[in-house]
Amino acid sequence: MGGSSCCNGSKVLRAAASRIVRGNTMSHGQSPRPATARKSSDLKGTVRIPGDKSISHRSFMFGGLASGETRITGLLEGEDVINTGKAMQAMGARIRKEGDTWIINGVGNGALLAPEAPLDFGNAGTGCRLTMGLVGVYDFDSTFIGDASLSKRPMGRVLDPLRQMGVQVKSAEGDRLPVTLHGPQTPNPITYRVPMASAQVKSAVLLAGLNTPGITTVIEPVMTRDHTEKMLQGFGADLSVETDPQGVRTIRLEGRGKLTGQVIDVPGDPSSTSFPLVAALIVPGSDITILNVLMNPTRTGLILTLQEMGADIEVMNKRLAGGEDVADLRVRYSELKGVTVPEERAPSMIDEYPVLAVTAAFAEGATVMHGLDELRVKESDRLSAVADGLKLNGVDCDEGEASLVVRGRPGGKGLGNASGETVRTHLDHRIAMSFLVMGLASEHPVTVDDATMIATSFPEFMGLMTGLGAKIEQAEIRAA
Ligand code: S3P
Fold it and tell me: What distance in Å separates the CA atoms of residue 3 and residue 102, rounded to the nearest whole number?
């Protein structure tokens, strides 16, 4: 992760954004840039995956809110996270970078400033929904906008509990962006049972609770990623979690307490890890090592599933770093067999179904995935985007309302698209990366219609993959 030695807040975030632009081009306002992946062999090498996106967003948010200084290393400098940094800056946080360390001087809990312009979250659901909770309960206007993908995604899941807390909402039809929020003088602390498995909704309510007097309670019937709870406790919030024998979690947060700046080292993103990991499993002769991967159990469902499919994944050097489980992974090419993925595992691998579906295309027999309703409301309708892309590339699969069945073809004979037809990515980074991984083990090339939006979560993807020996080429940028 490059970086100037030191510069002021606006400049450093702009510089980070422009490094992303130079590295990979921006995902919006620019022409799409197709990319093609071809059959490769023997992926080899050791790589370090950029920081976890969920933890990076929260590091900027909580650092920007807490009193005093927060120092962050390993931050993911993807477009999504940079947009969160800009939003925090627009609400009073001071952000700069010295060497590899981001340094934030926060405003203090309850002291965010009214943003003068709409907050633009680009492609990022997490940045947008969490910030709606964080600032929506303040007694001033805050406006949220985003790109074409984010503007189609449902915001009602966050706006409904905020309305219960007393927030006035002005939004486009169907609770879509653009949205303007105005909090009451004194927000109501609520008890909210999260109706779908969503860490974003849980987090938005808890973050709204930070500026609400009394105790805000979130009941989470199915556990989702717990970074908000863990990190808020780390920043000094009075937050407790109780889990009943059925696994239902009750999270209580005392509002209006003090948060204090922290030192954070962000571990590698397990979701980004999944792309080189799966590539090594399906490309014959591969043997790679991936360093410093977050192994929080709410994020490791894919690794478990791949191991059940027969994947050779060695988990090495398990350790604790900043309160999180971290390990290095050695991954070797493996002959895989199809499995049925237990439905209750979905929250711990929700972002990994596209790449699992690609893996399944190279496994012996059928892989059956149920409980995928939430995939329909991600950066794209991932269920149909995956099924369409698989079919275009010769894979036998069935898309159900909330399920996907993929029948694999070990060796990838006949897979890919000999006539160069492109997979439609719908501005979805994980669809683009999943299908590029598919092309590495398919008989024919696989082409995606656009790879620019990969920079939202994994700007280093192309360089890292080609460094391992993957044959991926991006089309030249066409002159305007
Ligand atoms: C995230 C939660 C998940 C996940 C997203 C990141 C988070 O979204 O898909 O990539 O950091 O809280 P949902 O809450 O919609 O499941």
Answer: 10
